Amino acid sequence: MKKTVTVQRSEVNQGVIPAPVFTGVNSSGNPKRVDRMDVCLRGHDKNGRREPPEAERLQKTTFILIRHGITTHNLKKRYSGSTDVKLSLKGKKQAVLLGKKLKSWQIDEVYSSNRMRSLQTARIIFKNRKIKKIADLREINFGIFEGRSYSEIISTHAQVYGRWLKDPFKTNIPKGEALQDFKKRVLAIFKKITAVNAGKNIAVVCHGGVISIFLSAILKSRDFWKNIPDSASITIIEHNKGKQKIKLQNDTSHLNG
After folding, report:
1. Which long-range contacts (CB under 8 A, 24 or more apart) does 129-133 make?
2. In 97-158, where do the E strands start and end?
3. How far does Cα 153 stand from its chain's mean position?
């Protein structure tokens, strides 16, 4: 004998059990009923109870990391961490190409470093959209290397420069930001951004060092130089259930035409 289960209407109204769906009539002229327990589990837990609205959303947060367009300091191989330089003409053109690439992408929020080169890039790409300026997304402070070219640094600080290039985690630049402190700053701000943007696609326009130290943490790598992306590149990171995955790294295909 087929077992029947009686469901109280109050249970349905309270969201304990999904309400039935009626689809037309049967041969007897009565409404055909299809229980949603099997066909509509989304938004309910395994016991059929309605989950809170937050749990109904896909909690995967996607970061679209964009390095700013090229600057005159980049072209002249000068270090500009805390130095607030603007985009070069080429950098502005790169940002326009980035805008074309990202035009059809679903992006929920836009964040940017508070440095002019990042803000200019973000404004060109995203035009009239709201851009959230975050100071902790700024580049590392290069201390006594700021604004100086490679050759200038070698001529005056060859030893410390050599040690720093060999292992920036162990060698601190005089009057600069230690790489370990930089790493803590960057990881902390990405954690904060993730916490308030669960399930969203987030564009972050920032710097080569910021992206590199974030990737290095995910990869558990100390090769800081290897992970620095090109100017106007795109890197995509997915954050899901506390884990991060690199989906795309240093893509510059949009700059080829």
Report:
1. 131/205
2. 109-113, 132-134
3. 33
φ and ψ of 200, to 5 deg: -110, 165
For the chain (length 257 residues), average pLDDT per consecutive 10? 41 36 50 38 44 55 98 95 96 98 96 98 96 98 97 96 96 97 98 95 98 97 95 97 94 92
Whether 139 and 28 map to the same domain: the answer is: no
Domain of residue 227 covers 61-256
**What is the C-alpha to C-alpha distance for residues 231 and 82, in angstroms, rounded to an integer?**
17
Residues 159 and 240 in one domain: yes
Q: Tell me the CATH number at 85.
A: 3.40.50.1240
The CA distance from 253 to 174, in Å, is 38
Note whether residue 18 is domain-resident: yes
DSSP assignment letter at 239: E
Same domain assignment for residues 102 and 134: yes
Q: Which two tokens stand for residue 16?
A: 């304990």
Q: Assess whether 99 and 143 both reside in one domain.
A: yes
Residue the block writes with tokens 């700013």: 68
Residue 4 falls within a domain, yes or no?
A: no
User: What are the tokens at 25?
Assistant: 């009539």
Q: Which of 173, 164, 175, 184 is nearest to 224 (CA)?
A: 164
- Which uninterrupted H or E stretch holds 32? strand 31-34
Q: How many domains does the chain have?
A: 2
